[in-house]
Amino acid sequence: DTRTIQGAIQVRNLSFTYPHTGIQALKNVSFDIPQGKTLAIIGRTGSGKSTLANLLLRMYDADAGEIRIDQVPLKEYNFSSLRSQIGIVPQEVFLFSDTIRNNIAFGLDNFTENQVIQAAKDAAVYQNILGFENGFDTSVGERGLTLSGGQKQRVSIARALIKAPKILIFDDCLSAVDTKTEEEILTGLQRNMADKTCIFIAHRVSTIKNADHILVLDQGEIIEQGSHEKL
Ligand code: ATP
């Protein structure tokens, strides 16, 4: 199925054990994210947050339970169609030894300069790039310019945004930047997130204050959930 994703996510009784280690990373997890809403997932290290992101991207399939997007079971989607419609900003940024432009447009067969610029603006890194001598042609990576942690993070965000995905997952990608940079990034994202379903995986409460709903995971289980005010 290569249908266009709208972005409503339903998770039902999801359990998952990593095949080689036998570690049960998720236990009977259920939640819904309506289309266009933002869910935050917090919890201690090893509580299963990234595993949930892995299952959404079908890096693994659940042992029990089900994930549906727009009421359609995940397994019924064409794999590459699914991947192209879900944007993920991973925990660890990976930059290629290439120009900033190609790092942002990574994985796209064709793209316009305007798309690159817009993604950079939305990720709040446009002004930084303009400040480099060669702008978007600046080489980064091993033999290129060394970007700061926060700049790398934002290039990685721009890479996810340029695909214009209906679902965006931020996997703990802001914990390495200071709170001021975080604020800048979140403000930049605000406009972009309006019609997208977002999942923010986070350690810091400041990252998730705008979330519509918060899940607290512990040892693979949801131990608490609610709004920011309620928790
Ligand atoms: P962190 O905040 O440190 O990123 P997390 O909440 O994202 O942690 P997960 O990465 O989902 O936690 O890990 C959940 C559990 O699954 C942990 O016990 C972890 O050791 C285990 N685990 C994670 N990835 C793998 C893997 N690829 N193979 C085997 N076990 C894994």
From TrEMBL:
The lineage of its organism: Bacteria, Pseudomonadati, Bacteroidota, Sphingobacteriia, Sphingobacteriales. This is ABC transporter ATP-binding protein. It comes from the Bacteria. It is found in: Cell membrane. Residues 9-231 form the ABC transporter domain.
